[in-house]
Design goal:
The chain is an alpha/beta fold and about 280 residues long. The protein is built from 7 helices and 13 strands. The two termini are about 15 Å apart.
């Protein structure tokens, strides 16, 4: 039996993503997870402007996310968000130059932060991601999902291998290729093997699956226009050919609602011979 623990699989790096680095960006993003940080210095526009005065007292702050965000906003520095890695605050700056580097050096203690020159602001990346929704490309191209790669300064799109070539050509008509990376989802082994114990056609076409060794059904699998189904001989079948009691192997699109039973959608279904 192949047991699948669903959910989004994104870039596995040991970072803490901090959303929003400007007032405009914050209006386009969901609130970030709560972060345990030390006391934050008040980097107000007045205070940060005074730092540029060589006669002013120099107080170098130890970098923390809130202080960095306040500083970026006060200085109106375009940026591609910030993240924590290797005990430093990493800041993506659009158009990083020596003047910006000097402002940071005058404000924050050396070794507590690292600046990176990037091409796109977080606002631009989020706008590109939103374009996928506006053009209904998820439905048209059978996209499994998308997310912003803060470190790579890209939008990452997850696509099943079956449709990858066609999907990429269409996506890049709308979004600049250098703004994108792709996570190609190969078919691989079945995610779930089990028996159909119920078929629902009232609200959506879906089947309830009982896995071997389980007392209760564990998955509702729904079907869409891109779902493919095959019988034991490898011949294409349709939803009306499914019956309670049939043994099936299922591949999911990768999206799972962790309820019980869990809710998932079918990428591929194969009927298997009853032992």
């Amino acid at each position: 039996m192949h047991k699948w623990h669903g959910g989004w699989i994104w870039i596995s790096v040991i970072i803490l993503f901090i959303s929003g680095c400007s007032e405009d960006q914050q209006s386009n993003k969901e609130p970030a997870p709560a972060v345990a940080i030390t006391a934050t210095p008040d980097i107000s526009p007045t205070a940060s402007a005074g730092i540029e005065d060589p006669k002013a007292d120099k107080v170098l702050y130890s970098s923390d996310p809130e202080a960095i965000k306040a500083f970026l906003s006060a200085q109106k520095i375009p940026n591609g968000d910030i993240y924590l890695q290797d005990n430093k605050v990493h800041i993506n700056i659009v158009g990083l130059n020596s003047q910006i580097e000097q402002r940071f050096a005058q404000t924050f203690a050396a070794g507590t932060y690292e600046l990176h020159d990037v091409k796109y602001s977080m606002q631009e990346l989020l706008a590109a991601q939103e374009l996928l929704h506006k053009q209904e490309l998820y439905q048209k191209l059978n996209l499994y999902g998308s997310g912003v790669d803060t470190i790579g300064n890209k939008v990452t799109i997850t696509i099943p291998s079956d449709y990858a070539e066609t999907a990429i050509l269409e996506i890049e008509k709308w979004i600049a290729p250098d703004m994108l990376t792709y996570d190609i989802s190969e078919l691989g082994e079945p995610h779930v093997i089990g028996q159909i114990v119920d078929i629902d056609t009232k609200q959506a076409k879906r089947i309830l699956i009982l896995e071997p060794g389980m007392e209760d059904p564990s998955y509702w699998f729904s079907f869409n226009q891109k779902s493919t189904m095959f019988n034991e001989a490898g011949e294409s079948i349709s939803f009306k050919d499914l019956k309670v009691g049939q043994q099936v192997e299922l591949w999911s699109t990768g999206m799972v609602d962790e309820s019980f039973p869990a809710l998932a959608s079918v990428r591929r279904l194969e009927l298997t011979a009853t032992e």
